[in-house]
Amino acid sequence: MVVNDMLNDKKVYPTELQESMLQEAVGLIRQRYGEDASVLGIYLSGSIVDRTFGEYEKPTHQDGEPRLGSDIDVMLVIKNRLNFLPLPDEDQKHYSVRHIGKKPDIPVYRMIDENGQDVFLRGKHPVEPMIVTEGLFEGWLSGKYKWGNEQSRPFPELVREYIIVKETGQLKEIRERYVR
């Protein structure tokens, strides 16, 4: 199956391959962030969850970043704090990410390895966490905060399909209050 994604045709991988890659992504993310006490929640959504994960017919760029295939959408919810948009350099190092949001107040990052190189699943699929505080997470889910020019949630998929990799009890209460 071929779908149009970001004005570029994307060849969707067979279901078995998508499932295998989903398990790889969960393992990688759990290994990197699962035991970090400052991370309250980890959610996967997007094409890797809704089974439209694949590679582009032609390379594309989003936010100036190269893409050969679908990205892996991850939301990391961290403890409430000041000064996190974007994360200070020492925190970016702690979470092994670099900021790729179009503006400093867009909390989108790309996972990097110990050498500062971008992490790609199977060489084509960047792991791109959105890192938000607990308060911002609740504000987006409740509709109190806006994303872009319209009222929305940071991951519309969070109200449809998502996978919980990690979640504290308090975050679960927040999510269940707004996500049906």
Biggest pleated sheet: 5 strands, mixed
Write the CATH architecture name: 2-Layer Sandwich
Mean pLDDT metric: 85
Instruction: Please state roughly what percent of the residues sit in beta strands, choosing from under 5%, 5-15%, 15-25%, 25-35%, 35-45% or over 45%.
Output: 25-35%
- The CATH homologous superfamily is named Beta Polymerase, domain 2
| Global geometry | globular
Q: How many domains, as an integer?
A: 1
What pattern of helices and strands is seen along the backbone? EEHEHEEEHEEEEHEH
CATH class: Alpha Beta
* Main sheet: strand order: 9-10-6-3-11
Low-confidence stretches: none
Q: In total, how many beta strands? A: 11
Radius of gyration, taken over Cα atoms and rounded to an integer in Å: 16 Å
Number of helices: 5
CATH fold-type name: Beta Polymerase, domain 2
Task: Decide which structural class fits the backbone.
Answer: alpha+beta
Portion of residues in helices?
Answer: 25-40%
